[in-house]
Fold each of these.
Amino acid sequence: MAIRSPDRSRRSTGSTAREPAVEERYPWLASLKVLLDRPLTSYQLVLGVTALLLSLGLVMVLSASSVTSLTTENNSYAIFAKQAVWVAVGLPTAWLVSRLPVRLIRGFAWPGLLVSIALIGLTYVPTLGVSVNGNQNWLALGPLTIQPSEVAKLAIVLWSADVYARKDRLLEDWRHLLVPVMPVTLLVAMLVVGQQDLGTALVLFAIILGTLWVVGAPMRLFVGAMLAAVGVVAFLASTDRERVERITTFLDPFSDLQGGGWQAAHGFFALASGQFFGVGIGASRQKWGTLPAAHTDFIFAVIGEELGLFGTLVVLSLFGLLAFTGFRIAMRTTEPFVRYAAAGITVWLLAQALINLGMVLGFLPVIGIPLPLVSYGGSALLPTLVSLGMLLAFAGTEPGAKAALRARRRHRGRRIGASLSAIRVRR
């Protein structure tokens, strides 16, 4: 884009010279613009970021869990093997979801919400609910133990997107912005809090606040909802002695190193010892029993120790790129449901990542939130992969994307056919 004011000054002196365009002065900007304008850019970015984060997660779960696996199950690969099974289940599921039409994905909104609420309710049944680390938020279904609140995150995103898409022309009225989304989300959050899981409730509040921002809620309404959510979280945190201890020690965990500050302080030890390039994959010292939840909530600390500042910056960059891509899909689509769902998924994953990173870096209390795609846990990984499959489906609604995907699939089909023909000829 040319800068006009210098041109006018030159014309007034009789000069015909012009100011070089931005693309001429910085050719890489022109190349970046061409790249971003391609119809499949969003699709490829979602694929690439997901593959990189998932691969990094598998490597770090193997490294961070090896000691725990050896001491608890006499097999250094036990926890990694479970995570690999969830990946093997989640990837085909995400691929299948990415091929579904948007109208079919939207059809899961109400059933998904009702099923997730029912599953959370079943955790209150003594014979079905399972307590882990004091949280009654797990459900035993035969040989599987799942965390229904992880499914509820995706269900809330889809359901709120469906509701707001139906009310798209009524969203100027603040009542339509709040009802029924806010009461239902609050109900689900309270059911989760009843399980002693404040971290997941905090993510649910973040999802709905982000969705309000996306749909264009007035600033006073957005600020009011945010203050109300903060007030509810603060009240709930004050009702539990362990939560109060975590909040009072997170600013200075070394003041209670042998008590409430133990986990946060050893997370700092891990990050500090990594320096710039880390001590090397597998060489972490904190995973040898001193850092609790090294392969789950505090896996970012192990990344900082083994891969150093460089590794942590790579993780931050990948989540930043995922956020950019998700909001890009939301902005480029013409379908209200796709816009709200893509933005909701992005807000969910970004909020959860920021809460986890803030917890490990000492900006937030330790509240037990996994890092999406990286931390161990199938109950969290599977809904995350499904949501990314949905993002791929939504990316296919961008201008020119459907035609480009069809052309690419036809080309791939011809190549496979040619390869099979060549094999037959050789035989």
Amino acid sequence: MEVKLIEFEKHGDERGTLIALEQWKNIPFEVRRVYYMYETGAGVVRGHHAHKHLKQVLICVHGSCKIRLDDGQEKKIVPLDDPSTGLYLESNIWREMFDFSEDAVLMVLASELYDESDYIRDYNSFLEYVNRG
């Protein structure tokens, strides 16, 4: 499964901590879109989709959440609870975000602009897509 945790370099002193995100440096693609989720209610599961081409880095910049990943062969759950760590996801990985803390803010950096045709929103269709040929 093409996922990895990226440890971002922290810069700080008595004033606080700063993390810089730079495409092609600590973000392994050109960033074309940034969005974030917050005020996610208790028990809510987000995502329920995969992407055909899009790559992403997910960073829980506040609070915590878990990411359930599935590439059609392997499944894993990755906790995100440190704003200095990002989860890099290649395409063709089913993802579900869940177990959000009340104060969670999940930021996503994406390699492409929004394109509905890149989404696979049905799990059985996803399995057919990744296991084709």
